[in-house]
Amino acid sequence: MNPNPSRIVIMLALLALLAGCGPNRVEPPSRFPRPVMAPMALTAALDADAAFKTYVHSEKLPPPGQAWRLSIGPASVDWMKNLLAAAFANFNPDSGSGADIVFRPSIESVQFSTPAQSRTEFYEAWIKYKVDVLDKSGKVVANWPIAAYGKRRDRALTSAEEGMAEAVNKAMRDGAAGLALELRDPKRLGSLLYAPPAVNQGNGNAS
């Protein structure tokens, strides 16, 4: 039996409607300026696990808001690689043996706001990172919280996704600036990596 042309048209229209009801998908651009820094004479590595690399924040806004899907992980890996490559004389973009210092990042929370929500002209994004710093033996010597914020004005944009993507990109740049501040003092980092072992303060009597 030949298919009914009108039925096919209706089905295609329904499929298009369903596709249009999907979430706003945001892929922030990996567009980060290379920092101007004096590289430290250390070998550094980035230990980003699969959860960090593929991190996605999904949220359905209250009515009449829409669903959003923000891909945070891939560009977060890129900005960290970009910063660490500038901060250290030798940088391994993956976890590896022989590194003097290893950075293990995680994403603790993501928040965002649209112009309709805030009644402003801005798309806004907040990302809370945490970076564990490990020495060459694998011991965690520091935990650095990195709070990142970015916004993009809702003018001359082609879509809501573009506005949110730019806000997230600016938040990541803010995160890079925050981590750069932690790395600015080489003496501080050296004190973490080469701290002398604790002396046993026992109460035993000397012979």
What does this structure look like?
A hairpin with a 6-residue loop joins strand 3 (56-60) and strand 4 (67-71). A 5-stranded mixed β-sheet has the order 5-2-6-7-8. Strands 1-4-3 form a 3-stranded mixed β-sheet. It has helices at 5-20, 50-53, 73-87, 115-118, 160-183, 186-193, and strands at residues 24-26, 40-46, 56-60, 67-71, 88-92, 101-113, 122-135, 140-153. It is α/β, with parallel strands linked by helices and 207 residues long.
How much of the sequence lies in strands comes to: 25-35%
Side-by-side strand order of the widest sheet: 5-2-6-7-8
What is the oligomeric state here? single chain
The topology string of helices and strands comes to: HEEHEEHEEHEEHH
* Overall pLDDT level: 85
Question: What would you call the structural class?
Answer: alpha/beta
Major β-sheet annotation:
5 strands, mixed
From the alpha carbons, calculate the radius of gyration and give it in angstroms: 23 Å
Task: Count helical runs.
Answer: 6
Helical percent range?
25-40%
Number of strands: 8
Contiguous low-pLDDT stretches (5 residues minimum) are: 8-20
Span between termini: 104 Å
